[in-house]
Amino acid sequence: MPKHYRPAGKKKEGNAARYMTRSQALKHLQVNLNLFRRLCIVKGIFPREPKKKVKGNHHTYYHVKDIAFLMHEPLLEKFREIKTYQKKVKKAKAKKNEELARLLLTRQPTYKLDRLIRERYPTFIDALRDLDDCLTMVHLFAVLPASDRENLEVKRVHNCRRLTHEWQAYISRCHALRKVFVSVKGIYYQAELEGQKITWLTPHAIQQVFTNDVDFGVLLTFLEFYETLLAFINFKLYHSLNVKYPPILDSRLEALAADLYALSRYIDASSRGMAVEPKVDASSSSQSNDREESELRLAQLQHQLPSSEPGALMHLVADNNKEVEEDEETRVCKSLFKDLKFFLSREVPRESLLFVLPAFGGMVSWEGEGAPFKEDDESITHHIIDKPSAGHVYLSRVYVQPQWIYDCVNARIILPTEKYLVGRIPPPHLSPFVDNEAEGYVPDYAETIKRLQAAARNEVLPLPGVGKEDLEDPQNLLYAGVMSRAEEAEAAKNKKKMAAQEKQYHEELKMEITASKDVVAPVVAEDEGEESVPDAMQIAQENADMSTVLMSRKKRKLYEAMKIGQKKKKASVELIEQRKKKLNDAQS
Amino acid sequence: MIQTKRKRVPVRSLKEEEDDLLLLDSNDYDGDSLSGSLHSDIFDPEDDGSSEDGERESSEDEVDGLEGSDDNDDGDESELVDGSDQGSEQQDEESDSSEDEVAPRNTVGDIPLDWYKDEKHIGYDITGKMITKKEKPDKLESFLATSDDYKNLYKIYDEYNDEKVELTKKEIMFIHRMLKGKAPHADFDPHAPYVDWFICDDARHPLSSAPEPKRRFLPSKSEAKMVAKLVRAIRKGLIKFDKPEEELNLYLLWAGDSTSDQKSKQLTYIPPPKRKLPGHEESYNPCLEFIPTEEEKASYKLMPEEDQPKLIPQRFTTLRSIPAYVNALKESFDRCLDLYLCPRVRKKRINIDPESLKPKLPSRNDLRPYPDSCYLEYKGHTGKVTTISTDYYGQWIASGSTDGSVRIWEVETGRCLKIWQFDEAIKCVAWNPLSGLSILAVAMGRDLVILNTELDTDEEQEYIKELLHLGNVIEPNASVAAIARWLPDEKYGGIMIRHFKNVSSIDWHRKGDYLSTVMASGETRGVVIHQISKKLTQKPFKIRGLPVTAVFHPSRSYLFIATRKNVRVYNLLKVDEPVKKLETGMREISSLAIHPGGDNLIVGSKEGKMCWFDMDLSSKPYKTLKNHPKDITNVEFHRSYPLFASSSEDSTAYVFHGKVYNDLNENPLIVPLEILRSHSTSSNGGGVLDCKFHPRQPWLFTAGADSNIKLYCH
Fold it and tell me: What does this gene product do (chain A) (predicted)?
């Protein structure tokens, strides 16, 4: 009898019954691979990892329930319908019946994805949580050139563009943007909406190139879903602002490719118009008013409601608290560039800055038509410029590079501008996503920023230029406290003494061993008092080794893996420090 | 007939082409001339001749025959020449004359002429006679001929008929015109207005005089049906004339979020892991120390593909100088692939300090005393010390070495008291466990020698001597006799038991009368038990597998036999089957030790692992310790202290605290205490070959491959 013999009539059990390979799934669903892929993408079905791979390691396994879920999807039937319809069109074309083909094409069956979105993301928070990929993709396609070959229509690119602008307008308007990072790949933004951190990447606004090693079919299927998702999310967000969606834009500004500005103006205008409505006035009124009002309402409600419903009251209070909290969080961002007026030069990335600056409360204008104020406006405080220009230089404003804005945003303070002035090489642009302490290496400039932040918090003006030098020299750190210095000295002395003792001990031991080689007589080792002298580090190491002996194999492996990970991290940090040392040596 | 023939004769080279072209042209020309012929009486003979119609030709021929005067025209026709009457007439005459002369026309057909290259003839005429080749004029002659007569310039050689044909003026003109890309006929107008052949007006006499049918006057039913269908379709809205405006169809999808608590039927959704957030090195303007040096960049190229860093940090001093990222689409695509193709598993990412994984152990200081420092060294052996044993009181220690000597040392002073020299390397020594019976069992090669150490009082000595006197040995049965023979030892006056295979280990029973020996290669007969008092050898049981070592239970009549992979427990009173089988799960057991309580044992293996068995608990190891990187040579329990030790070929010995509780619910406590490293590691294949505890003190003896014995004290 074979090992895995299953008598006839007995059902499969375990992993064999619970999982099926992809080809089995295709057969089961009676679809081709292409259609299956589309279904999977749209429905969000992914392979699973069975504990035991019955059919072997080189298969993709899907859960039977997932496949059943696809099986009952109305979209499957719709896709089949579309397929047969395409056959009809093809037939008409083959018979040279152009008229019929045209007619058929106008009446193609269509499908909608809204139900699927609701199914995949039952709550709004769920949708926001998975928004990263969606935003990155839509932002990428917003800058791609339309291409017939790849079946990428102009309409879709425009739609992507519109969606991204709407999203950015909302984020900017709500001051939900938290971090910006200009990388080689593009600009990363991180916003916080309803407690979810949403990070996305926008490519640099330069013509993108198509690569051959990409299957556009897959990308476009994803894009189709993402477009729908983002549209619904935008709708919801705009609805929460009491703004009509889709927004109707000022055609003049739209033509000038200043969509974002047009959008934000639209939002401002419409929310101001609605301000009479009760939903907005809560947020616009001050906190104290809010509190009073809620208390009043509470009292009223307590009168109205029977006392058996405390839940509703709790809910009301929670609502109010939440609003207050949100204000707390966004206030810093809102007021970062509060009284500053910016003017963007021609060569700076306008779209990015038009998004970032208003998000942090700044006023922006740019060179070109439709700009809110002209270059010669005397109240402009900062002129963002990326290359030295021969134009008129206004003394009333600072000419800074765009990196200054991004660094200010990440540091949440107005950084001193002298390092960012035009024509200079700006200080390094650091990633706001890195936890320097956890990483083990803190760049110099991060330290400087930290000091500046601390100074700003204490309302003390930082001494220009002091911060950096102070930290560069480790000796200076010792001067900071006399106490610590004394301790340090003592520790060093102790260490020296220990080392000397150790050396002496080893020498004595050696001598004794050589002496006692031919003597059978007992060799009495040193007193126990000196036994503890050998390197404390080594003893500790040995102790550590000893307790690993008692670990179970699983734990020991885990421990070793963790140790290797730590070592790697340390090695990379060491490499960086080594490079830095070399650089410093080369400089001095 | 001749004319037609002549016409069909293909003339090579230029002429042939010309001919074809002419034919074509004349075809085009036909219509014109015909239409003309309807209205006018002037008959242009040339036009006529161009037709290929056989019928017509024949009729022409007939005419030919009737009217001799018209012969001219026919000749002209055959030449396909058009033009002035004068020229044509001349031509006619010539052709006529030539026709008479040149009777033999070649009839071979359209074949490659080089088939006749080597023949004397060029083909056959119509009567079947050979046409002989004419003599070719040599070049000089032909040149002279051309220079003499300018007409020779206009002559073409016709290979087919092997004759020279003179081009007429008309023909030359054709050639000129064709070279210019015009129609050969000068009077041919390629852009002449089209003249319809048939008149479309109602004829006075129609072909059919049937009256118009009724259906011509009635509206079509099928068309009406079709129209009705279309109308219906339009009314129903199936056909839309204006393209419907694409509406967004958006609504508040998450209107009532509170309904989210409804249980979804599908499997748990595992959200995709977020992309890794960029670090400092991905910045467009990173710190200088993040940028690898040129050498490092070069070294990246030597790395295998998958180890190379994905992104090498670069530095751009201005924002506007950042180029487009080439891999943007590719990365997006890869992410998409990951999203729909990668199996997702929820993995617990442990974010803890690795130190917290270590078990919480009691402090070592609380577990004192234990041996932790080297106190004494016993030197004297010249070979590796393979085995040591202590006597009952712990006053003496016996050691055996590969140099063939057995020595007895005084423990406290390190003085070597006695030396026995044997021929073979000592495998094993074991001191009798009884207090007044200081005899020593020494195993070397196949022999087991029982030595009198002469360290006891006199009356005890007498007893020992009597014991070791090999008097009348009871004759054993044949199967046992094949395994071991009892012989007197002449050299040192003891007993020698000679086995049939090399002895690998020995162990005394607690009562000091029985002695078990294990022969590793003895297979089923590998374990025998000797009784000293009766000078008797027993082979109590068959062994399964290769025995490694055998140990008596410290208090009960059990024998533990370790084979390569398992430990079997035999009841000595009922020896049929093992009482218990302990599965170590190790590859090769090297040593075994039993806790003095008798319920726990440790097993050392050659892979450096040590198992602790709690026999009340299970037949599987309670704990497996991986402490040595190399083979474990011996494991040992202390008789009274809660200590055990292991020695290994990696020149270390571990001392553990191993406390066994009387309470059955409490598991034994195992704590590693000390690593003893003082044996030299340099000697080849060295290490610590044996370890033994002092019977009374928490001291440990270790025998090293560096020919030293060491004593560790607390």
Answer: Required for maturation of ribosomal RNAs and formation of the large ribosomal subunit.
